[in-house]
Amino acid sequence: MKNKLTLRLDDSLIKRAKKHAKQKGTSVSQMVADYFALIEIEDTSPSKKLPPITSSLTGILKNTDIQEQDYKSYLEDKHLK
């Protein structure tokens, strides 16, 4: 069953999407459908699942204020001094 979906986009983006669709010999609707189908495939692919050890470690650093710069500073201190 197909239903209608309304998207609100900038005029310039709509023009580019229509131009791209015409070049590819498809419609903007089909491009959007293909995109969402691709996302669904990516979300359910086995490669998205983490290995057991990695999975067991996720979330153990909750409530920490560690920033990327802190890690970079740690590495500099460890390897450059």
UniProtKB/TrEMBL annotation:
Domain of life: Bacteria
Pfam families on file: DUF6364
Entries under SUPFAM superfamilies matching the protein: Ribbon-helix-helix (SSF47598)
Name of the protein in question: Antitoxin
Originating organism: Fodinibius salsisoli
Organism ancestry: Bacteria, Pseudomonadati, Balneolota, Balneolia, Balneolales
